[in-house]
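Allow me, if you will, to draw on your knowledge of protein folds for a short while. The matter concerns a single protein, recorded as an amino acid sequence and a row of backbone structure tokens. Could you please explain, in whatever detail you think fit, how the structure tokens follow from the sequence? I remain grateful for any guidance, and I place the record below:

…
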Amino acid sequence: MESTMLGLFVDHYQDFARRLRMRLRSDDMVDDVMQETFLRVEGMRAVEGGSTNPTGYLFRMALNVAADQRRADSRFLTGQEVDELLHMADDALDPAHVFQARRDIAALQEALAELTARQRDILIAARVEEQPHTDIAARFGISVRMVGKDLRKALEHCGDRLDRRVVQRFGPGAGKTS
């Protein structure tokens, strides 16, 4: 066959496919990789003296195509994964859960209404908007320590109204963001 890269690829096609089959363990993937590699080699411009081992270069190209396809395939769910997701039981739609969630929302709304305006705004800024305590302090013209106190009072009040225990975070990052 001719001495071009495409000719070399065609001459070694069966060998490349066999070696890929040993690595990839999927006939379908080998077929796809070989086809894509063929198209890439066909689209290449002539490379004179560019490689001392042209067959190794071509096989490496095929391996790179396989790696690209695996990365692309990993971004998508398989058919089996889609089926599993479609057939998952959704406990959130259980009438008892829905009823309890609605009660919790109503209790939280009442608890928020009972807070001072500043406590409510600090709670929302810290927990919903995830603003750092330093930004909240600057916004309200108070100290970071005061933000922490108002936040703790608001959380304790809401926890009491919802019959839930509030867990206070400690450590170096506890006051930076909420």
User: Anything to note?
Assistant: Residues 33 and 66 are 6 Å apart (CA to CA). The two ends are 69 Å apart (CA to CA). DSSP finds nine helices and no strands in the chain. The chain has a mean pLDDT of 83.
